[in-house]
Amino acid sequence: MTDPAITANGLRKSYGDKTVLDGVDLAVQEGTIFALLGPNGAGKTTTVQILTTLISPGPASGPIRVGGHDLAIHPQSVRAAIGVTGQFSAVDGLITGEENMLLMADLHHLSKREGRRVTAELLARFDLVDAARKPASTYSGGMKRRLDIAMTLVGDPRIIFLDEPTTGLDPRSRHNMWRIIRELVADGVTVFLTTQYLEEADELADRIAVLNDGRIAAEGTAEELKRLVPGGHVRLRFTDPAAYRSAATALTDAARGDESLALQIPSDGSQRELRSVLDRLDTAGVEADELTVHTPDLDDVFFALTSTTADIPHQPEETVR
Ligand SMILES: Nc1ncnc2c1ncn2[C@@H]1O[C@H](COP(=O)(O)OP(=O)(O)OP(=O)(O)O)[C@@H](O)[C@H]1O
Q1: Separation between Cα atoms, residue 172 and residue 262, nearest integer Å
Q2: 119 and 24 share one domain
Q3: Do 100 and 216 lie in a common domain?
Q4: pLDDT, tens digit, for every residue of 96-111?
Q5: Which residues' Cβ are closer than 6 Å to ligand 1?
Q6: 40: CA distance to ligand 1 center in Å?
Q7: CA geometry: angle 10, 16, 17, nearest 5 deg
Q8: Where is the ABC transporter domain (predicted)?
Q9: Which ipTM value was assigned to this complex?
């Protein structure tokens, strides 16, 4: 196991009487993507602002380490190790994309030559060469986000905080951004991401924490979180009534659907449980005509954990055969 890039213990923050963070523990391993999910106002941005030294943690907070530095003692070292993009975009719309990049290079004290080299390389990498000489105010939302990340990378940060990086982007730009994020991590960068999109956390994150009421309601891989909510099952459908009856006899724990010739077996969707169902069918000498695995998705987890009962979670299904 690698060293953690970010650790926080008992993170607290209040505004007046309002407690926003009430003892949040976080550990993000180097070179991984960590997603912080939570309903509006849960405290995601507040967490990012604390971890990036933009605001101070509450006095009762435990220690915070970012990039190997104690945030309370060496905030400058933390700042040198990180990049932040998202809701606090650094892009200046009045100057061109290239000028924004060169300005960033100046801020990082790169020589003129090195600044031009890094700028050219990053503009090419983020597909912004054609737009480089145009004012950033003329860029589309996706281009602005790409420029924002490119500007962050000028300082070669090892840890990047992305606060809602794809909010408002169209599907193509969103997928483009996901590719960029994956490439960053392939280069060894650690990404701390906040998002409103469960699908985004599911796609990208190695680990996901769900923030609710100022506390982490659950943390784990997407698969681990999905197993927290009930409702997973395997559904078998038959066209031959005799095969259906044999299967129903073999699978005693199955709920029967005599009219539809379908059986439903509670399952967490794991390979082990799926194999057990198939083994029992094999032993009985029957073959199902259709097998589908129903697993709860992150939406179900999110609704269950954040008790937003107004929305009814749906049951997606994944056809195995
Ligand atoms: N400077 C401030 N003064 C007072 N209250 C604040 C301040 N900043 C944030 N809050 C409150 O803290 C709570 C958490 O805000 P925060 O922006 O961290 O939530 P969030 O999870 O990022 O929400 P969203 O998804 O809507 O961006 C909110 O209730 C917000 O009103």
Answers
A1: 39
A2: yes
A3: yes
A4: 999 999 999 999 899 9
A5: 15, 20, 38, 40-46
A6: 8
A7: 80
A8: 6-238
A9: 0.95
